[in-house]
Amino acid sequence: MKICRFMILVFTAYALTILNAKTDSKKQEVESLDSKTTACHTEPLGEVSKTLESKKDISCLLTQYDKNLDSNSTQNTETRQNNNTNKEETHEYPLLDKKSKDELFGTINTAEIPDAIPAPLTTKALLSVEDWRDTYFIYLYNFTPMENPRHIPNELKGQISFRVPLSRNIFKSGGILYFAFTDTFFFQVFNEKASSPVRDNDFQPEFLFTYPMNVVFWGGTLTELTTGWRHISNGEINIEHGGAADRSRGSDRWIFKARWTTKHWGVDMEAFAPVRFYPENPFIYKYLGSLEIKIFMRYNKHLADATITGLLRYFQPGKKIDSLHGGLRLSYTYKLNPYYGVYMQYFVGYGDYLYEYDKIGHRIGIGVRFVR
């Protein structure tokens, strides 16, 4: 019994100690609330402590706390925006505007999303496929006689062209290294008597360096400069090397290209310099020339192009200047949707495809073009 009484006394003492501690904690909370309510009321501190338990005073404290949070959040947002603006202004490529920089480096619009940070360029964005020299398939009719009497004048002409960025901001220059490829073919699909052959096929791989620009003049903008190596071949082998006919053609040139655009119009200007001379076609550069100009229009669903080739005569030191041989290609596209449209093409002149570089061609076609 004595042990039980002793345990009851110990337990009672312990309970009183805990109760006193809780009472002291409540007093400290009341004193803290008394000091905070002075910001919401002009009453003396004693008056406020008497009515501290009222809902009005607690609501006032919560309102003041919310205002402080909103103020801190606004200051943090403004700080982030200022930091993003300062980074943009001090970018090391001043010729590019913000939209061009975002497209080049794969970032998101940090001005519209204050809390956003630049997103890293993913492998998918790095290897994105871009349209290059038009991709289309058309029914084609040839007005000029065919090279082979077994060929018929109506056929299918197709072109597949694309470029892929291999490296963006290469060597921290702001430029983009591209690999491009174009395949142009003439398919005698309606010539069943000759087993519907592909009569010609031009392969054109390119390695290009493009630097995005933003230089305004003459009411438009110089948007890019491009230079690089271009090879074109029809994949044939001459008789002396085991081929069936003397049809091998090839060309290697270094190109320089500039693009100038307005809202609806633009001009592509390409200059060429020979890199290698092939014995199968030693005079090819006399016909290809040294300059090509493409004028294009983009207005709503209408796309139109006019390309003039062979504008400058090819010149070799110590030799006579060659006569001018060129060609004219006109094309028009009516977009049916964002992905493809009805396409028409007309060509007259030299060099519509590689084997015909020294022969005049005259043809017209209609079909489908893929657009992006």
Radius of gyration, in angstroms, nearest whole number:
38 Å
Low-confidence stretches: 37-55, 87-94, 105-121
Number of strands: 13
From the 3D coordinates, which CATH architecture of the largest domain would you assign? Answer: Beta Barrel
Cα shape: globular
The CATH superfamily of the largest domain is known as Phospholipase A1
Class of secondary structure makeup: alpha+beta
Fraction in beta strands? 35-45%
Annotation field: number of helices: 6
**CATH-defined topology of the largest domain:** Outer membrane phospholipase (ompla), Chain C
Summarize the helix and strand pattern as letters.
Answer: HHHHHEEEEEEEEHEEEEE
Report the sheet with the most strands, covering strand number, pairing sense and barrel closure: 12 strands, antiparallel, barrel
CATH class of the largest domain: Mainly Beta
Distance between the termini: 96 Å
Mean pLDDT: 77
Helicity, in percent? 25-40%
Structure, described:
The model is unreliable at 37-55, 87-94 and 105-121 (pLDDT under 50). Strands 2-3-4-5-6-7-8-9-10-11-12-13 form a 12-stranded antiparallel beta barrel. The protein has helices spanning 2-36, 45-50, 55-89, 98-105, 123-126, 284-288; strands at 130-131, 135-142, 154-168, 176-187, 198-217, 220-233, 250-261, 265-276, 291-299, 302-309, 327-335, 340-350, 360-370. By secondary structure, the protein is α+β, with helices and mostly antiparallel strands. The protein has 2 domains: 2-89; 123-370, Phospholipase A1 (Outer membrane phospholipase (ompla), Chain C). Strand 7 and strand 8 form a beta hairpin. It starts with a helix and ends with a strand. It contains 6 helices and 13 strands. Pfam families: PLA1. Keywords: Calcium, Cell outer membrane, Hydrolase, Lipid degradation, Lipid metabolism, Membrane, Metal-binding, Signal, Transmembrane, Transmembrane beta strand. This is Phosphatidylcholine 1-acylhydrolase.
